[in-house]
Amino acid sequence: MIGVFREHDRLGRRLVLILRGLPCAYGKCTFCPFALEQTLHTSRILGDNKKIIEKAIAIAMREGYRRIAVFNGGSFHELPYLVIEQLKPLAKNKIFEIEERSEYVTYDSVTALYDYYGPEKLIIRVGFEVYDEEIREEKLRKGMPNSELYRVSRLRETLRSKGYDVEIWTYLLFGIELIPEDKVEESLYKFRELFDGVIAVRYKKYNPGHPEPVPVSRKLARLLEKYADLVDWGGEQWIIAGKEGSAPG
Q1: The listed CATH number (3.40.190.120, 2.40.33.20, 3.20.20.70, 1.20.1250.20) that belongs to domain 3-245
Q2: What's this model's pTM, rounded to 2 decimal places?
Q3: Residues whose CB falls within 8 Å of the CB of residue 15, separated by 6 or more in sequence, listed in order
Q4: pLDDT per residue over 164-178, tens digit each?
């Protein structure tokens, strides 16, 4: 769902923009639902996003939001340049947060964006999803091998050594048949070592051809709530070992 959303959770008080984007250039992940928010019609992208950004600027100014997150069902660098330009007032002197595939996260791309926007801090989320490379590449088909995972992790230190206040966070996927719970646990600990933040996301099946969701054990739920920076339960009831219940708070 595209639009502007006010959030206040473990990450603090945030204004979240869900923009309409072009189809992901990679487009091979086995579980991705974001085609629902994408279009090939540039005029629609520009028109919808202009309204969303104008509304967000008005809210941010009126209500004093200092943390802004922008998502577009793909990589930020796949947005039309005009949209990237329109976002500048929301990024300048703010904690500005975006999503990227790993190939877009390079020293040149990050520093160019940072210098253009002038944020207080730039946070980049990358969907590595699971630490196990075989699962990530053969089952999820992410196209981001461990060589990319470690390259992006090391890039954080390079950027900071040059004075750029940049954090790189990763998504951790759980509740999907392709990732056993022990691999979710392993990923949580490994990702905490390699990145600045971990956002655990419960899988939801949107398309008939996608993998099946699976129950989440109480043990894993508690572990994620304790060690992940944020757990996204999808805003719905969730299942613990076959029994319905609400996400722990």
Answers
A1: 3.20.20.70
A2: 0.92
A3: 4, 5, 6, 7, 56, 59, 60, 65, 67, 68, 69, 90
A4: 999 999 999 999 999
